[in-house]
């Protein structure tokens, strides 16, 4: 029995299914969470399916999160999607369920859940959910909304099919989801749209980006800077890919100050593996896309030095 079949059997047996995703979600986290929920609800109308997590206004177009209580978790099947490690799970009650299942495409550094389905070669967890559905199509229902949600997740994590994780199988999944009712133009348009404050912040990032001789680059966004543009941490996602459009930039870091004074680090790369840097600073992720934390300016400088070394070594390798 494959792990995908085992997960399907657990879903068929459960009366209550609660689907979690990671904190500070992106389209893949929410798309896979709500997309899987939509498939299960359409396929098994008698089952109770809940999707907890913080609601973000910017993702209202994908759907709404559910409120949950401790009582909901009694004998429940809990599915944790797109979440590499336990501290990142959005929700404190997830481990109260009867059975915990992990479905993810990040490196499995925190091997929680039984069973675990981890595919680091998948472009996104949303693509994994489609690939789980496809061979079971005779027993499951993929609604147009479920297709839209999964398509949105794939588009989000592939940078609209720009990143190296995009493979022929990714395009086939996207095509199948379009055929199932996903409005690609509408989803692409929404994910490509930014607000005027983010547009102005984008100009700031380009103007103040520091690029080192190695090809590493970084910019620091303090609370004062964010306040001057009237935006918060969640809105900075739109500027993360920007340094990668510069031909001489190999890898980069966006340091975003949090209200508590520490910094969230968004690390990206066009070649050098940067998840080692992330692991050194309370983070992790993919080789070309990771996240981490820096407590102060001194740690920021340490991260920049490490990123510089990574870019320099990569330059020598190629």
Automatic annotation (TrEMBL):
GO terms of molecular function: nucleic acid binding
Domain DDH residue range list: 17-154
Entry superkingdom: Bacteria
Domain spans labelled DHHA1: 246-311
InterPro entries assigned: DDH_dom, DHH_sf, DHHA1_dom, Oligoribo/pAp-PDE_c-di-AMP_PDE
PANTHER family hit by this protein: BIFUNCTIONAL OLIGORIBONUCLEASE AND PAP PHOSPHATASE NRNA
Protein name listed in UniProt: Phosphoesterase
Phylogenetic classification of the source organism: Bacteria, Bacillati, Bacillota, Bacilli, Lactobacillales
């Amino acid at each position: 029995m494959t792990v995908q079949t085992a997960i399907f059997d657990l879903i068929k047996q459960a009366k209550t299914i609660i689907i979690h995703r990671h904190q500070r979600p992106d389209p893949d986290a929410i798309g896979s969470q709500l997309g899987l929920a939509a498939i299960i609800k359409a396929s098994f109308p008698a089952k109770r399916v809940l999707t907890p997590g913080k609601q973000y206004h910017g993702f209202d177009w994908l759907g709404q999160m559910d409120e949950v209580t401790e009582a909901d978790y009694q004998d429940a099947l809990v599915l944790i999607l797109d979440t590499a490690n336990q501290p990142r799970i959005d929700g404190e009650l997830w481990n109260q369920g009867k059975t915990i299942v992990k479905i993810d495409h990040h490196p499995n550094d925190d091997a929680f859940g039984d069973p675990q389905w981890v595919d680091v070669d998948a472009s996104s967890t949303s693509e994994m959910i489609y690939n789980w559905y496809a061979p079971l199509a005779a027993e499951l229902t993929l609604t147009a909304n479920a297709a839209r949600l999964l398509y949105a997740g794939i588009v989000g994590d592939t940078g609209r099919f720009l990143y190296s994780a995009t493979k022929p199988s990714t395009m086939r999944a996207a095509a199948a989801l379009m055929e199932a009712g996903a409005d690609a133009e509408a989803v692409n348009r929404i994910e490509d749209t930014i607000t005027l404050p983010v547009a102005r912040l984008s100009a700031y990032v380009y103007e103040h980006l520091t690029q080192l001789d190695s090809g590493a680059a970084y910019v620091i966004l303090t609370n004062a800077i964010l306040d001057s543009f009237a935006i918060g941490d969640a809105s900075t996602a739109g500027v993360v890919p920007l340094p990668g459009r510069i031909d001489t930039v190999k890898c980069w870091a966006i340091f975003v100050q949090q209200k508590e004074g520490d910094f969230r680090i968004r690390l990206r790369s066009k070649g050098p593996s940067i998840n080692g840097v992330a692991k050194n600073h309370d983070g992790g992720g993919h080789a070309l896309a990771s996240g981490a934390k820096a407590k102060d300016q001194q740690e920021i400088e340490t991260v920049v030095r490490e990123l510089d070394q990574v870019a320099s070594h990569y330059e020598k390798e190629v």
